[in-house]
Each structure stands twice: as C-alpha cells, then as structure tokens.
Automatic annotation (TrEMBL):
Residues 1-44, 175-196 are annotated as: Disordered. This is Conditioned medium-induced protein 4. It comes from the Archaea. Residues 1-12, 27-44 have a biased composition (Basic and acidic residues).
Amino acid sequence: MNEKTEELRDIFTDVTDGEDTITESQEDTRGSLERDERSDEERLRSVVQQMRERYAFETPLSDDELITVARGFYDDRTDADLAAELAVHEDVIFDARLSLHLIDEDDADEIDLAVIRDREEDDAALAAEYDVSESQIRRHRRVAEAQTQSRTANDRYRDEFDSILADADITERMTTDVREDGLEDATEGMETDVDF
C-alpha cells in the first residue's frame, strides 16, 4: 500500500468506528418475478388495511370483501357482478372500488373530471349544463375526488394493486407460455399420430 492508500484506509476506519468493512455478503439467487415473500392475499390485505387507516373510509364490506372487489376489478368484472356475488347494492361496490382508488376508464367518460373537480356550482346546475342527471354529477364528483386522493398519494395504492394483481396475471401467463414452449421443444419431430 502506498502512503495515500493507507491514509484513506485510516480515515475510512475512523469514520466507520473501526469496522474493517461495511459491505454485506451477497447470495446467489435465481431471478423471479416475485419481489415479496408474502402471499398475494397477505399483500392485498396489507394494502386494504393501510388504505382503511389512512382514509378512514366507511363501507359495510369486510377486508375480505374489499379484496374480492379488487380482484374483480382486475378480472374485468362489473360492479353489478360483484354486487350480486357479495349480496350488496351496486353503489356499495362502486364506493368501495373508488375508496380503493380503482377507477375505471368508463366511470366518467362523458364529462371532463378536471372541470367538474374545480366547479363550485350545485349538482342541479351542473346536471343541466352537461345534460345529465344529478345522480350522474354526484357520481362524477365522487370519481374526481377518488382521482385526486390517488394522485395525492402518488398513485401508490393503485401501483400496489397493479404489482400484486396485474403482475400475478402476467406471471401466470409467462409460466404457462414457458411450459408450453418447453413441451413443444421436447416433442418436436415426434410422431404423434400412432395407431396401437
């Protein structure tokens, strides 16, 4: 070691309280699409509980039922389907879905939510202006409120749902594709039309 290297080593050991090293050992691990050791169900429950605490939203649905709503949203099930399954009114599903920041493109496609968000007129005035019912205006305002809430949280919860539910679907499709491709490679050139 030259003099400068020794000097730097001494400074390093002084700064790190005499530790010779601050690196941690690394393991050789195989790649995986999974980043979390918890099951999808545990991860979903954690997200739902965090959202309940943070936003204190009121819903007659249990955590398990909210997880069903989230799963249904990613499976492209309608609010009506989920309402029938959970034996509740469709509006309960709609409110629960928005409380979970799960907003569908069709939730307010006729009205510019950015405009609705900033308007102070009552529902009747906006309904007349946009030629829709007051209940539709209330619905659109609820969607706008959920969007604002989600954006304020940097879409963190929506991203969590995406990573759990959308990634699970991708993982399933990829593993199925890999199995099918492997089977094709293994059976390539084999005679399959054989009479016994």
